[in-house]
Amino acid sequence: DAGVHSKAWYAATCDRKMAEDALYRSNKDGSFLIRKSSGQDSRQPYTLVVFYNRRVYNIPIRFIESTRQYALGREKSGEERFDSVAEIVENHQRTSLVLIDSQNNTKDSTKLQHIVRVS
């Protein structure tokens, strides 16, 4: 379970719309939660949902079978890999996460600062 089920930021029963609604309600840059990915694909088990600059970003969390590690977004050379989903969160509470808006081709960055609970 990647150590996510006991974490405050893990929204177990949450779908994409519920996650986005909760983050829009929080309306704080750096608000985030992690939910199960919609596709239920073992290679992309979770999604990191982040609010920044009045937008919600859904960032896939990939599971890399060969190394039993996790990484964010699409595969790229030199990407950061983590031993657990919790490590991704802890890392990006300290260091900024790059947010790529593929529609407008812009880049922003924020730290994961505010855990959002879905009611």
* Basic shape: globular
The CATH topology corresponds to SHC Adaptor Protein
| Biggest pleated sheet | 6 strands, mixed
Please identify, by name, the CATH architecture.
2-Layer Sandwich
Tally the helices.
2
CATH class: Alpha Beta
Low-confidence stretches: none
Structural class: alpha/beta
Instruction: Indicate the mean pLDDT.
Output: 92
CATH superfamily: SH2 domain
Helix content: 10-25%
Q: How many strand elements?
A: 8
What is the CA-atom radius of gyration, in angstroms? 13 Å
**Percent of residues in beta strands:** 35-45%
CA distance, first residue to last residue: 22 Å
H/E series? EHEEEEHEEE
Please tell me the total number of domains. 1
Domain SH2: 9-116
Pfam families: SH2 (PF00017)
Protein name: BLNK protein
Keywords: SH2 domain
Task: Supply database-style keywords.
single chain; 119 residues; alpha/beta; SHC Adaptor Protein; six-stranded mixed sheet; 2 helices; 18% helix
